[in-house]
């Protein structure tokens, strides 16, 4: 029976406060404060050993915390684990497919364990295999399936309970580029349906395409949390702009543009000038000033800091704190990116 403590629509789907879990080798998660709104994709980022998998296990009630508290859809995974797991689906890094069973049987067994009668278990399983492009292999043993095929089966299995929250732990690990593209597209479809997704990964490409917010873990500690654009505003001084002038800039143009309000920096570029400006509203003023100076501008390319830029800036600062040698300008917070279209 479900608890009366179910979340209201305004409650976070995922919430932790001071969450801590240690093992004999040390703390895997330390004082973790994160949250994800309903329908949001939260990317939990960090290298192997950062604490991502431990966090997923804690939130599903598989592990108990040493300190702190947490809620998933308003339920405590420690005391209300069944209520949590009835609303969640989990895709682990290792698909965990039983090669002694057919594709359909791999799903049907889990559906029966979730309490569905045989006919409903088969119906749900086949509908999901159809959705994820594996229906033609329903009666085949999974032995010999590619990594991508196994991930599809595992993702279908995670969806059997029509979960409100999905935990995806390294969902594209071991996939080739085509398999990665396909799985990311499937995850995007699930997110578009309004499901809350916690995406634990160290592959930044998939996170940048899917995530609304990001949490960067390093050795179990939270080092950055928020929406990429908000974090970028704290780390980087505006956006990058490149003016393609077809060659070296005319004499005095750099000084002229540097005097435009909102322009923070002007540097030479291979065929023009590279600027850092407060925001995109400054770009028209830059172009007007360039035209008034008689410069021909053949192309303008702007680049706002991305999730990847934010992640690497955070990692660089962590390495600086730990005494690693990193480019000084990068550590100072200068954007380590080139302007692109």
Task: Set out the fold topology.
Elements: E1 14-23, E2 26-32, E3 35-36, E4 41-45, H1 52-59, E5 67-72, H2 81-85, E6 88-91, H3 103-113, H4 118-131, H5 147-158, E7 165-169, H6 177-192, E8 196-201, H7 204-210, E9 213-218, E10 221-226, H8 228-235, E11 239-244, H9 253-258, E12 263-269, E13 272-277, H10 283-292, E14 299-303, H11 307-321, H12 328-331
Parallel strand pairs: 4-8, 4-9, 6-7, 7-8
Antiparallel strand pairs: 1-2, 1-3, 1-5, 9-10, 11-13, 11-14, 12-13
Order of helices and strands: EEEEHEHEHHHEHEHEEHEHEEHEHH
Could you tell me the strand content as a percent range? Answer: 15-25%
Radius of gyration of CA atoms, rounded to a whole number:
24 Å
**Strand order within the widest sheet?**
6-7-8-4-9-10
Name the poorly predicted regions.
Answer: 1-7, 325-341
| Number of strand segments | 14
What is the average per-residue confidence, as pLDDT, rounded to a whole number? 89
| Assembly state | single chain
Q: Can you count the helices?
A: 12
As a percent range, the share of helical residues equals 25-40%
Taken from the alpha-carbon principal axes, the silhouette is elongated
């Amino acid at each position: 029976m479900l608890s009366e403590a179910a979340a209201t629509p305004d409650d976070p789907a995922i919430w932790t406060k001071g969450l801590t879990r240690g093992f004999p080798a040390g703390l895997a998660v330390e004082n973790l404060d994160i949250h994800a709104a309903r329908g949001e994709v939260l990317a939990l980022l960090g290298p192997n050993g950062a604490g991502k998998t431990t966090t997923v296990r804690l939130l599903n009630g598989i592990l108990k915390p040493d300190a702190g508290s947490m809620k998933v859809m308003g339920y405590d995974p420690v005391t209300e684990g069944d209520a949590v797991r009835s609303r969640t689906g989990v895709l682990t890094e290792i698909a965990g497919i039983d090669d002694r069973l057919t594709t359909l049987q791999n799903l049907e067994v889990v559906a029966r364990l979730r309490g569905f009668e045989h006919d409903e278990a088969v119906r749900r399983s086949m509908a999901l295999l159809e959705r994820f492009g594996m229906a033609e292999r329903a009666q085949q043993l999974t032995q010999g399936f590619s990594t991508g095929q196994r991930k599809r089966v595992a993702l279908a299995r995670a969806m059997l309970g029509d979960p409100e929250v999905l935990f995806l732990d390294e969902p594209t690990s071991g996939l080739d580029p085509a398999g990665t593209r396909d799985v990311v597209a499937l995850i995007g479809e699930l997110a578009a349906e309004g499901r809350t997704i916690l995406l634990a990964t160290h592959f930044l490409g998939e996170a940048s395409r899917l995530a609304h917010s990001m949490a960067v873990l390093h050795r179990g500690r939270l080092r950055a949390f928020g929406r990429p654009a908000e974090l970028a505003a704290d780390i980087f001084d505006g956006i990058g702009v490149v003016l393609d002038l077809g060659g070296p800039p005319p004499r005095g143009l750099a000084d002229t543009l540097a005097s435009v309000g909102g322009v923070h920096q002007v540097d030479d570029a291979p065929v023009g000038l590279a600027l850092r400006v407060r925001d995109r509203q400054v770009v028209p003023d830059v172009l007007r000033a360039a035209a008034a100076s008689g410069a021909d501008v053949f192309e303008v390319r702007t680049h706002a800091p991305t999730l990847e830029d934010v992640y690497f800036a955070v990692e660089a600062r962590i390495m600086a704190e730990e005494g690693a040698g990193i480019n000084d300008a990068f550590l100072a917070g200068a954007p380590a990116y080139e302007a692109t279209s």
